Amino acid sequence: MMCCVMMNRLVDKNARIFVAGGNGLVGSAVIRQLEKQGYTNILSPSHGKLELMDRVAVEKFFRTHCPEYVVLAAARVGGIHANNTYPAEFIYQNLMIQNHVIHESWRHNVSRLIFLGSSCMYPKLCPQPMREEDLMTGLLEPTNSPYAMAKITGVEMCRSYNRQYGTSYISVIPTNLYGPNDNFDLETSHVLPALIRKFHEAKMSDSPSVVVWGTGSPKREFLHVNDLADACILLLNSGLKAIHKDSMIFNIGSGMEISIGELAGLIKSIVGYEGTIIFDPSKPDGTPRKLVDSSRVNAMGWHSKIQLADGIIKTYEWFLNNNIGKR
Ligand code: GDP
Q: Which of 130, 137, 185, 246 has the largest CB neighbor count within 10 A?
């Protein structure tokens, strides 16, 4: 059920838009796409300039700069190994960041906020494709439940502020993302950047094989981050007003699922590596599938545009141009 109505409203091109997490994968894409669309007044202090875990600093930032719109893309993020290794940091840091930014947004009359959730908020064994109504209907995947719990809390916080204070804060639930400015560190990254790096380095060093974690059978849906950024800007502009104030949640996915084994084959051929792939089943597979149902946002006119192979080619180019990894 779609519990929102569309109203005509456009974000002024000179509006003050605070993109929290502007150096990250998502935040940098949102800034890139906002600039491309002619927005001129984007606020995005670096982590060094504004510590989002410091409530006093966040309050001062809002008081001084009075943002009118907020895209909350700042988060402690990481792949399956990082989530599994640093669970306390993942829950604490994400709760702190989002509590401060959401609460100060409300205190300073921010009319529209976009909160970035994650598809790992859905139950581990959720029926596929996962619909927004499926949130909180089952147990979470244990490797990333601290992160997922923090993100679920953020969604609930947006819903609660909408209900009690009449705000119109939107939560988006992107599927697995990739693109420029991704994290390519093998210990902490997600699978797609990790495999770009592994195949590239194996090619450069003439290694006979590349190890891919897990069995290769889990499936994931991938979305280029520019497509996500376009969806966020569309929602920022949508003028949606919740009728039932708890419905402003949107999955954002490409609809394209691929197994980790197939993904490894695709990246191997794009990188031009000729050795073999070895699966390491001693590493966790994580959740078996994570496909989101994007029909809500599709109905608003957004569809992903970037095909997976094209997106990987562009991301590999970015990786090479930015001198990441050993040559
Ligand atoms: P997830 O989507 O939250 O499970 O996070 P990841 O992107 O880290 O992992 C997705 C899947 O890719 C899991 O089944 C991993 O075991 C698998 N995988 C295979 N090789 C790698 C690798 O080198 N790094 C990561 N992060 N995952 C890998």
A: 130
